[in-house]
Model the fold of this input.
Amino acid sequence: MIEVKKVLVVDDDPDFLSQTEMMFSSRGYEVVTAPGRGEAEAIFDSYTPDIAVIDLMMENDDDGFVLAYRLKKRFPACIVIMVTNVTGETGIEFPGEDDSSGWINADAILSKPVRFEQIEEELKKIESR
Amino acid sequence: MAEEKVLSLLIVDDEDGMRLGVKRSLRHFSMETEDTGETVKFSVTEAGSGEEAIALMKESSPDIVLLDNKMDGMSGIDVLRWINENELDLMAIMITAYASIETAITATKQGAYDFLPKPFTPAELKVSVRQAAAHLVTLRQARELEREKRRVRFQFISVLAHELKAPLGAIEGYLYLLRDGIGMDDPAVHDRVVKRSLVRLSGMRKLIYDLLDLTRLESGQKKRELNDLDVLECIRNSLETMKPEADRRGILITLESSTDEIVMVADSGELEIIFNNLISNAVKYNRDNGSVTIKVVDEPDQIRIAVTDTGIGMSEKEVEKLFGEFVRIKNSKTRNILGSGLGLSIMRKIASLYNGGVTVESTPDVGSTFTVTLQKTQ
Done:
């Protein structure tokens, strides 16, 4: 039997949420979406994601960080990809993709707008590590 | 409390008596800057030759230099030239007994700020120093202001660029889905993709229009056409524009006024922007089947327009954040509401043209009241 990978997408942007869901579904993944950190954490007991794509700044500016931390703690094997438009929201340049300080619990950080192919590429890179 | 500032002054003269005299005259001298009311005092250091002065200035640049021209070795002009070449940020006052026209011209070319012919009285010295200090303070403030303006402008543009990228990204994403036929077997999905693209496009258009309004207002380029206008009439026009959206969501809008007509001198375009923003926000952030109450009060000097909604409201913290440019309150309730984040900035700019303002009162989950005041005579 082929194992179907489970994806969790968390973002308060409804367009990003539905597009990412459609793209993952079309590639044969199982997808669940959540519009915020609270909603995402509420399904931790019933859903074990292999991959999580999460936004950084949602209701609170650091929701993505908190969620990434909790995801990794609960599901150590879960690949976490963070997508962010932090520059757009704050004018601050973000450390970005090559952040090596390790204080962000994400396997990759991508700046928005992000194309699905970028997410796929990151996944491939992380999985081959 | 006004701040105190100490400016450093260097006296360069080969006469011991002159240096001592200047030091004594300025020891207890203080002045106040015109606009900020800061107290300025002076700390005086001395140099007996041009060479010594340069050695001192290499250590740290003074704010004001009193410079004798006729000295053994390097002349005052030579020192002035050195100051120029090293781009020191200071005011130079030439003090010289034999001020020839030629010296004066050369010194001025080299950027001397003032001349104080010897012999001078302590009072004359203080007048000259006072002027130089005031000039220096103003100059530095202007420079600081310019830097700050540049920084704000840069930040504005960089945030704006990202605000435009967001809807572009969303629309692009939908176009890729359409191109690759992903999920398009379901006609409902297809419709939603097209509908969302159009919604995001119209949001982008609104942002661009808002931005144009804002830049026109800020540059003062837009010609104001001031006429006698009935404020109530303008509000009714804005109401008509918003009515379809309000009806769709079952929101009832009522207009209350103490009189039938309130006339003031205003630009109709400006009033339209204010009322459209006020009313569309009250509808946008309302709950379905809620209400919007517009209360217009004609006061002796001003007109007060208060728009109350029964919507999601804001916390105190959110209200504080609200007045920045591109600020949009993010929470689960505003998730699906689009906006440019410029509406309130625009309203405030316009209200300020009428010596008025915008205030907000809000309670979460109960509603908000935005009040705009416009002075009748400006």
Summary: Chain B has a mean pLDDT of 89. Residues 30 and 41 of chain B are 5 Å apart (CA to CA). Chain B touches chain A through 28 residues (CB under 8 Å). The two ends of chain B are 32 Å apart (CA to CA).
